[in-house]
Amino acid sequence: MERTIGNSAAAQNVSKKEAKISVGCNQKNRFIPIFMTGTVLLTMISLIYLNIDWLKLASRVPQIGEVFCELAHFDFSNIDQIFSSILETVSIAVLSLLYSLVLGIVFGMLAARNIFRIKWLSVLTQSVFTFLRAVPTPVWVLLMLVCLGMGPEAGVAGLCVHTTAFFTKSFAQSFESIPDETIEALEATGTGRISIFTNAVLPAAFSQIVAWTGMRLETNFSECAVLGMVGAGGVGFVISRNLQSYEYGTAGLAIVFVFVIAYCIERLFVALKKKIAQ
Known about the structure:
The chain is mainly alpha-helical.
């Protein structure tokens, strides 16, 4: 008799779980057509507003292949200039990353809800850096060009603003993923907030910080290559100048170096993350 009652109770629990799962699936299934319809509508509105000349676009498509063929004819006569610009780009990316890494950890600690547990402080910090993150990196670099003048200094400062905002949000989420039980257990022993952060939260989130750092270094390097075209220095300036002067061989070689270094950065941090996880 007891077994029958237990089996019926278990069956009821299973049926309740299945009902919850089916309800959740139905809600998700309703959202998919709404999302797809909204995407199609936005696409149609964008196409109508832009008024793209498709015939002109189709006539220019063969030129894409011609330009890429020209870029593939590498010119090694300016290899020293390319190397120096690549080093400048890497230096800008690394410096902006290191400064932003330190600032991101500090502000991420303030933005995380489970560190100081001061709601207005975390909301204020998140709001400020949401605004900073909403403004694209080229805008910050252009503002720094006005303030600091042409050169790599403007690139470092402009990248620091957006990268710090990115790290603040990313690190705050990593810190908040630490179980509350761990923090509460340390609080019960009388450990201070800063000590809890440095000795428990930060080491626990270290692998996530490495992953975010690797991804952002790759992004910073790619953005440096673009920002150099607006006067921030680096390989982007070399690519832009050679494209404008129709020296496609030099520009193509510089672009290949950008791809190779970006790939090496990605593989380096993937290997580093695997080693940390072991």
